[in-house]
Structure formats: structure tokens, C-alpha cells
Amino acid sequence: MRIGVDFDNTIVCYDGLFHRVALEQGLIPATLPADKGSVRDHLRRVGREDAWTEMQGTVYGARMLEAAAFPGVLDFFRRAVREDYDICIVSHKTRHPYLGPKYDLHEAAVGWLERNGFFDADGIGMERGRVFFELTLPEKLRRIGAAGCTHFIDDLPELLAEPEFPKEASRILFDPTGSREAADGVRRVRSWREIEAELLAA
Length: 202
Fold this sequence. Notes:
Elements: E1 2-5, E2 12-13, H1 15-24, H2 36-45, H3 49-60, E3 68-69, H4 73-82, E4 86-92, H5 105-115, E5 131-134, H6 137-146, E6 151-154, H7 157-160, E7 170-174, E8 186-189, H8 192-199
Parallel strand pairs: 1-4, 1-6, 4-5, 6-7, 7-8
Antiparallel strand pairs: 2-3
């Protein structure tokens, strides 16, 4: 078994951070629900699409280390590495934001992984060479295939439904809110505890 995992919104949860940054910038009312989708939808509704785009650069760049891990995901990786499962991270991420300061988003993501013990022998203990940040969606799909993933976990149903998605990989949609439609043949899960129970033998 070779398990591939997406990074943004699958390992890392940005809900609280987007809400906090938007409040600091005076872009949303304090009563807005504290989740990424609500912040995005509000800014689009009031014609502030550029503010939303620039905020993504801030969150994924300068403020990246403030983002939280989804509950259970660190335990999942720790156990997978300890029990010698073949696991990798494959993400589609531009090098720099589309708007605003030119933060290195790859470097920020690696910093988050380091901060959370992914490469620490006393933490998760994952090899740095098992983390891939690809610049385009086609490159991400090719990487999933090249890595020989038998299972891939992602929060985007559209990625899992791509015609070029490797046919040999079982597709798992990480959908903690239970609000997304999964294509035929895609297994939908709502938590990392559920993923652990399904993929890692007891």
C-alpha cells in the first residue's frame, strides 16, 4: 500500500486563520462563521475578490505557521511512518501568490511541516524527499502516478474526478463538513480517525 495525501485543506486546516486575518484587516463582520468558505463567499459577495486573492497569499505565506492541523492527522502520519507504511504528500501549489508580496509558498509549507514535527526523528519522522509541491494540476496528477500511490486522499472532488487521475489509485475525498458531492468510485470520509481506521490495520 502506498498512501498519497494532499496538503492544503487536507492536512492543514485554515478556517480559523482566514477568519482571524480577515477580521484584522476589517474585511468581515465579527459575526461571520469562522470558516474559510464563509470568508471567501462574503468577500466575493461584496465585490472584494482581489482582497480574497491577496489574503490567500498572506495566509499561505507570512502567516502559514499559525495554521492548525486537522484533528487526528498528525497521529495518522506518526502511526503510518512508525508502522512502515509507504506515505507521501503531493500538493499543487504555486511558488508565489497571484497578488501581494512574493512570499515563497513552498518554503512556507515546508516550514509548517518542520514546525509540526514531520521531519523530526522524535516526531513523525517522515523523509523530506517524500514531500512534493507541484506547480500545476497536471504535474500533481503525474506525480501521484509516478509515486505509485494505491490510495490518494484529497479535499477536492474535482481533482479526484479528473480523467487523468491515475486509474490504479483508490480515490478518497476528505470532506469534514459532509457538503461535497463525490464522483462515482470515490470514497468520502469526514475525519482522519475514519481514514486511520480504514487504511491502517489495527
